[in-house]
Amino acid sequence: MTPQPDPEAGAAVKAADRAHVFHSWSAQELIDPLAVAGAEGSYFCDYDGRRYLDFTSGLVYTNIGYQHPKVVAAIQEQAARMTTFAPAFAVEARSEAARLIAGRTPGDLDKIFFTNGGADAVEHALRMARLHTGRPKVLSAYRSYHGGTQQAVNVTGDPRRWASDSGTAGVVHFWAPFLYRSRFYAETEEQECARALEHLETTIAFEGPSTIAAVVLETIPGTAGIMPPPPGYLAGVRELCDKHGIVLVLDEVMAGFGRTGTWFAADLYDVVPDLMTFAKGVNSGYVPLGGVAVSAEIAATFATRPYPGGLTYSGHPLACAAAVATINVMEEEGVVENAAALGASVVGPGLRELAERHPSVGEVRGTGMFWAVELVRDRETREPLVPYNASGEANAPMAAFAAAAKKAGIWPFVNMNRTHVVPPLNTSEAELKEGLAALDTALSVADEYVR
Questions:
Q1: I want to staple 97 with a disulfide (CB 3.0 to 4.6 A). Which of 140, 291, 317, 323 is the partner?
Q2: Burial label, 266 (beta-carbon count in 10 A; 0-12, 13-18, 19+)
């Protein structure tokens, strides 16, 4: 991709956006969205001819990068053959996408309910769990994100929930393990795991096991900080759910389809949930698609009893054709293996080397192409570089870091006091090293705020 400057066209795109587009999660008059002229592979460019290495993968969904020719061709071919069709019919692209997904999900998660994205996948997974158990409550973790629709935002554990929080949502939050900022005064992963499980067990007991339909967890929390659970934690949650007849829902919307160096993050922990949600990487976000992988037991609940839910565009043929092509590309080109290998040999070591030289880095954690860098003012106290949910002047250090990263040629994923390193899974070693060098430059700016 060779950017061709066209400031006049960029100004027109920006003007139309500012006049008519209502942006998500934003105070409309306080934002200044970049006008994007094009994207290819791991890069995108603006109308001034600047090129950025995308260390965000869009919103952590372009797992095979932008404009992969085989997926673009599959969408074009499907559009020429059958652009759309109602979900009640058997359609080749839909059937094949379901087959390919079911062939990679763990255990007996062999039935696929298609949605339009991750949030509605969570909505339907929780509806299935409540109907299957006949119970009203759902337990979910603080430091989590599950989507922006009404139920999904209520089970979310970050501040985006607050404006829509509803006391009638039937949601109870608990603390999941995170040793770096332990809520359990733990000093080792073993302690953190044991105490987090004891906390969850107590929460279940005091809420009443017979009232709880589901425990929903991101297998590895994404937006909240990319916090791989300690060994034994997810297995322990599985045991608690089995003990009390509670459905275990694993949210793999962000972590799934190769992001962690395995097809699903659950593969890293040898845990099989009852329901698993997915979206994003299933077709690299080329056409909106999500879904719920359903276990045999829960599917049987609706064998002769209608499932009361559906979507007009469930399993849209264009989206499913993109999923089929994406999964095949990932197999043919070893994309999952690439994520695992370069995560272990380039990204992880590179970030740890940066941590040694930059006092603003408190911790580096992750796996595959799924990493977080925790930025702090003080390594000893672990005081975050900016306060929790900071905005305006309070967020100035992170804003300065992000601006420096963009100036150095990468587009960073910044959330609260963290930057996440989540490039496309087929990013090359040379591109990753380019990005790490840009991060090095930006972290020098963050260092200026260290006490």
A1: 323
A2: buried
Cα dihedral sign for 110, 116, 117, 121?
negative
Q: What is the pLDDT of residues 363-402, one digit of tens each?
A: 999 999 999 999 999 999 999 999 999 999 999 999 999 9
Closest C-alpha to 174, from 217, 230, 129 = 217
Query: DSSP 3-state helix, strand, coil percentages of the chain (rounded to 5)?
Result: 45, 15, 40
Residue in the structure block whose two tokens are 């077709």: 283
What is the residue whose two structure tokens read 């930057």? 419
Backbone angles phi, psi at 440, to 5 degrees: -55, -45
Note the residue count of the chain.
451
The whole-angstrom separation of Cα 118 and Cα 134 is 24
DSSP codes of every residue in 224-280: TT--PPPTTHHHHHHHHHHHHTPEEEEE-TTTTTTTTSSSSTHHHHT---SEEEE-G
Residues 250, 282: Cα–Cα separation, whole Å: 16
pTM beyond 0.90: the answer is yes
pLDDT, one tens digit per residue, over 14-43 is 999 999 999 999 999 999 999 999 999 999
**Which residue carries 């070693």 as its tokens?**
429
Distance of CA 400 to the CA centre of its chain: 25
